[in-house]
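Moderator note: this is an archived Q&A kept for reference. The question asked for a predicted structure of one protein chain; the sequence and the answer are reproduced below.
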Amino acid sequence: MSSCCGAPEPVKQPNCCGGEPAKKSRPDILLWSTLILVTIGYALDLFADDFVQTWPSLASLTAAIRQLMDSMWIGLALGMFFVGVLGRVPREFVTSLLGKGDSFFGILRATFAGVLLDLCSHGILLVAMRLYQRGASLGQVMAFLIASPWNSLSLTVILIALIGWQWTLLFIACSMIIGVASGLIFNWLEARGTLPTNPNTIELQDFKFWQQAKEGLQATSFSMNWWSSMLVEGVKDSRMIVRWLLLGVLLASAIRTFVPIDSFQTYFGATLAGLGMTLIVATILEICSEGSTPIAADLVTRAQAPGNGFAFLMTGVATDYTEIMSLRETTGSWKIALFLPLVTVPQVVLFSWLMNVLGS
């Protein structure tokens, strides 16, 4: 049995006497291009604000980039940290903590884990993809991801201050219901062969969690080398998702520059048309949960459309390209990625419409 905090599982090396030749790694053009553009925009706003004020659009664009990165970086850094930690945890422990992936209680555990973990949507995304790699079932990953995009403790407190505890608790309860229902649906689709199963899933045979954890912790030396290598692995394993987040920052900054925020209060009322517009904009506007929370609060308080506020928060994980592309990268399946909006959006629309009808 491997240590609960031991070294990561070794990567399989190609056969030295045959097989496919080792492929030369290519530079990640998307990662480096978006990183350079975001860095330039951030640096211009930080160090050359007076200079860029000559061009109002450029000034607005660089300010939006800096604002988004300032709101995202803590959650992103914590996400990378947890990715590194999970990389040191053997799959047996992850499977034991989450329970049976094909059971209702396994889905429920994953949902509560997503709600209780104090990370923003982008940090949660990193951890969710790692959970899939550590053997969590597809339904558990979806339940974890869907129930938790904005349900961190810090954002819950902020949301209570903005819209009140009644709406906040209702939002949390509805997101958990959608998470559990979606997890069960994905497990059903997996069982009937519509979606591919997780190849990382393992079966536990008389696994004693606390005994194995105690032995593993005692056998692990938490040296500076252990911590540094764990952090490096977390950063490396997060690259495929970070590149999409950086692209999202650039797109969201461009939209913030050329689409005034006042449009939200004018065109996003408590109607089916307003709800539809909210879903479309939330799909396009890729921002972190810290950025979406105040906008959602405006939809509740100013537009008097509580359902639209809920839809704006939930659609970020249900339809935006970051989640879809991250699922595609991690699972290797376009079908799994595209079933995320197919399963979740109808539920979000139903709950949002009921909130608008009953609460406005």
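Archived answer notes: Residues 56-87 form the longest helix (32 residues).
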